[in-house]
Amino acid sequence: MVPEKPRPTLKDIALQAGVSIATVSRALADNPAVMQQTRERIQALAAELGYLPNAQARALQSSRTNTIGVVVPSLINHYFAAMVTALQDAAEAVDMAVIITNSNENPTVLASSLDFLASHGVDGIICVPDEGCADQLEELHRRSLPLVLVDRELPASTIPTVVSDPEPGIREAVALLARHNALPLGYLSGPTGTSTGRHRLDTFRQACAEAGLPEQPVFLGGYEQHQGFEGANHLIGQGVKTLFAGDSMMTIGVLEACHRAGLRIGEDISVIGFDSQPLFDLQPRPLTLIDQQVEIMAHRAFDVLHELIEGKQPQDRYLRIPTTLIERESIRTTS
Amino acid sequence: MVPEKPRPTLKDIALQAGVSIATVSRALADNPAVMQQTRERIQALAAELGYLPNAQARALQSSRTNTIGVVVPSLINHYFAAMVTALQDAAEAVDMAVIITNSNENPTVLASSLDFLASHGVDGIICVPDEGCADQLEELHRRSLPLVLVDRELPASTIPTVVSDPEPGIREAVALLARHNALPLGYLSGPTGTSTGRHRLDTFRQACAEAGLPEQPVFLGGYEQHQGFEGANHLIGQGVKTLFAGDSMMTIGVLEACHRAGLRIGEDISVIGFDSQPLFDLQPRPLTLIDQQVEIMAHRAFDVLHELIEGKQPQDRYLRIPTTLIERESIRTTS
């Protein structure tokens, strides 16, 4: 579906003219919000470069609302609030607005959000998918609605996708814990019905094997604080020396369990968390954690969506942003 | 504009039939999603009570999307994330969906969000207003779009409004601090361009006067963490013994300032915060704080909006939910 000869796009003109894409778009529409002199300069440049929006692109453009939809599974989860905020920053930089829906991890709610967004004039959608909505998402994609999946992926999908790669962060974390002999490790896994839950758990197990460790205790949790709390209590009961939380919300549950049990993190027990947020910094011993670089992920996802909206084929349809380990003070050394 | 003889509404029928408003609505539309027996029972009851939707209500109903818009100034702020989540719970209980926009405290962004929502088929809007958008909100209200203001109010507006009343919580807090002799108090005020910022600051000053205290140091901040951080450093420099944060985000900034300065909260310095969230519980000494009962506020705001959408005049057009002081361990006693 890639055009044989790539034509110059609004972005190409914007780069050459040294103005924003929104300004080029307005100048080509002869919008008086752009100074006449600038309008003429941009129109001349577009003609020179051979810019010619095709009928479809023109039709799309004329019905554009400059608004995108963003669908996340939670807003109480600071990670997704940060993702939405970063997506909005990226959109505002090109004069686009964002409307948000929260599926509460409920595929029925997600399905009706997608229906509403697709039928009420958004130019494109960035969605944290649920595998229960795969057919509907594939259908929107086939109907050429600009669509990007973020954070989680759908197995065997060709929808453009931006996710984080858990491997670098988790491998480094397990190696660090093995070096500090903070063993046994207790891993709190996210739901295996999500790509993130599965991939992180597989990576944890592989990293343990590579570090020469026998199988370590795992608690199959979810993406809520109470599951982290229950899992931490369960793993503490099994005698683990480290609690390794597989997402943000379970990290909070782990903190709650340690707090209630009077366990001092980094002294009585080691803790490793997921994602950055003030709660994890403002502890007597700031948490060592795996950071997903959520702002970068959001900006990349927006860039891909923006290219699709502009009628371009994105260069990369599958992007993985590496996780990194941020080492702080929550790992104790057992001699 | 109140109808002379109030007719029974969907809610009245629902109460008498012992079913949800959504079920009544569906039964009257002869929707097969409701069991035939129930449909007939509800239709008979509606006839008996003389229920007759007027043409306007019918027209509105037929174009309804069962979707409301919610406009908040931040999602990184846990207080607003909790508000949105509670609004969504209330809406889902009557089969309505929620779409969300985040103004980032920017009146221009808020204005275009309102435009988008109003022109793209939401049945009503719940908005944390910005005083810079007062005219636009009044205009939407005049055009009879169901609209409820929440958290902040507009001076002299007749738009239905649900806010929290800072007085009980702040008065009790100041009295407690005076009793513990945790003086001088340093108050971090929200922006005086918001009703919440003004009302809390006025209440703080009055409460100090009533407790027989001379004027206490005040820092005029905002609703962001870095303003709490700067304000706390400034007030610590002035020798205060208590840091009293006037909102959630500045409470986080206060924690950050104490953390960096190595001040132990509840031992070296007293801290009192605003709003409940895990970060404030999971401290060596959990924070004493003023709780706004955000879930109750959200549910009341939704109830008012829902009445407006159903074509009823709400009983209360101005609701204040009292704040409460939650006493924990972050106040030290100075002898």
What does this structure look like?
The structure is a homodimer of 335-residue chains. With 335 residues, chain A is an alpha/beta fold. Chain A folds into three domains: 53 residues, 434 Repressor (Amino-terminal Domain) (Orthogonal Bundle); 127 residues, Response regulator (Rossmann fold), CATH 3.40.50; 129 residues, Response regulator (Rossmann fold, 3-Layer(aba) Sandwich), CATH 3.40.50.2300. In chain A, the strands form two sheets. Chain A has a six-stranded parallel beta sheet with strand order 2-1-3-4-5-11, with helices on both faces. A six-stranded mixed beta sheet of chain A has the order 7-6-8-9-10-12, with helices on both faces. In chain A, strand 3, helix 7 and strand 4 form a beta-alpha-beta unit. The N terminus of chain A is likely disordered.
Number of alpha- plus pi-helical segments of chain A: 13
For the largest sheet of chain A, list the strands in their spatial order. 2-1-3-4-5-11
Uncertain segments of chain A are 1-5, 54-60
Helix content class of chain A: 40-55%
Give the count of structural domains of chain A: 3
Determine the most extensive contact between two protein chains.
A-B, 37 and 36 residues
Looking at CATH, which topology of the largest domain in chain A would you report?
A: Rossmann fold
Radius of gyration of chain A: 23 Å
Mean of residue pLDDT values of chain A: 91
Portion in beta strands of chain A: 15-25%
The CATH superfamily of the largest domain in chain A appears as: Response regulator
CATH architecture of the largest domain in chain A: 3-Layer(aba) Sandwich
Structural class of chain A: alpha/beta
Number of E strands of chain A: 12
Shape of chain A: elongated
First and last CA, distance of chain A: 60 Å
